[in-house]
Amino acid sequence: PALTRRYGRWCGRGSTNRCWSHHHEEVRIYALFRIKQARLRKETFTRPEGFAVETYIDPSFGVFVNEGAVDIAVRFDGEAASKIPERRWHYDQEVERLRDGGIIVRFRTNQQSQVLFWVSQWGPNAEILEPPELRVRARDVNGTIYTVEVQALPEAAFRERALYYWAQAYAGQLGKSQDYTLLCPVVGVNVVDFTIFPDSQPVHTTFHLTPRHTDGTDDCVGHDSLILTSHLAIHFLELPKLGHTRSQDAEQAGISTTLRR
């Protein structure tokens, strides 16, 4: 087994271990903080021929597997342009400084999903330039912008944080005096390894802006499907709820399958 560094630093409780799984008969990645007990056993395994950590994952940036290596280019502006150069995020990174104050960070990695999560944390101050297929994952063909946040440890104000990131991405679309018709929908996707809504069973919960009665009750008669705008949607996926509901519906099964990839 070996510890993994992410974003150029040790992750503390977020550190991971690469181990051989006798059950799956392949190398698997395990989060250290989820290991409750360990004991020495007599079983051994043979290291897979030709196995190299550098091709299996990119230890300096993330632990996603089975993603092809690509050349990454991300533009940062505003506050992000001053903070990003303070750290070496990837051992192979190159930083190009632009005349307008922005920067472009380039490196090669097989951690495409991790790049997407990393970029989304900087909201409207970050834009994926290359590769085209990753750029599409951040903004679809209809112009919809996606902010993706993955959080392992509980945070008291995570709901407010999710709303704040959504608001940053929405407000950051326009410059001074630009027309509001240029605004595109923003979808917030939050995958968390803790429970946010303890009184609700679904793994996947979606929020929109819907009307309320003047007395404070929900579901105005005749307006149960009315929303203020289609530009706002914030999704929460609470991983601890997977498999704990009475019956696993099609959506939950689909989420489980996706997360195993």
Give an overview of the whole structure.
It is a single chain. By secondary structure, this protein is α+β, with helices and mostly antiparallel strands. Helices cover 20% and strands 25% of the residues. The protein has six helices and twelve strands. A four-stranded antiparallel beta sheet has the order 6-7-5-8. The longest helix is centred in the middle third of the chain and has 14 residues, at 158-171. 19% of the residues are buried.
What labels would you give this structure?
four-stranded antiparallel beta sheet, four-stranded mixed beta sheet, alpha+beta, 25% strand
Major sheet: size, sense and barrel closure? 4 strands, antiparallel
Please report the number of helical segments.
Answer: 6
Give the helix level as a range of percent. Answer: 10-25%
SSE run:
EEEEHEHEEHEHEHEEEH
Query: What would you call the shape?
Result: flat
Q: Count the E strands.
A: 12
- Poorly predicted regions: 1-15
Termini Cα gap? 21 Å
Instruction: Please give the order of strands in the largest beta sheet.
Output: 6-7-5-8
Helix/strand structural class? alpha+beta
Structure summary:
This protein is α+β, with helices and mostly antiparallel strands and 261 residues long.
List the helices and strands and how they pair.
Blueprint: E1 5-6, E2 9-10, E3 16-21, E4 26-31, H1 53-56, E5 70-76, H2 78-83, E6 94-97, E7 103-109, H3 112-120, E8 126-130, H4 132-138, E9 145-151, H5 158-171, E10 186-192, E11 204-207, E12 232-238, H6 250-260
Parallel strand pairs: 9-10, 10-12
Antiparallel strand pairs: 1-2, 3-4, 5-7, 5-8, 6-7, 11-12
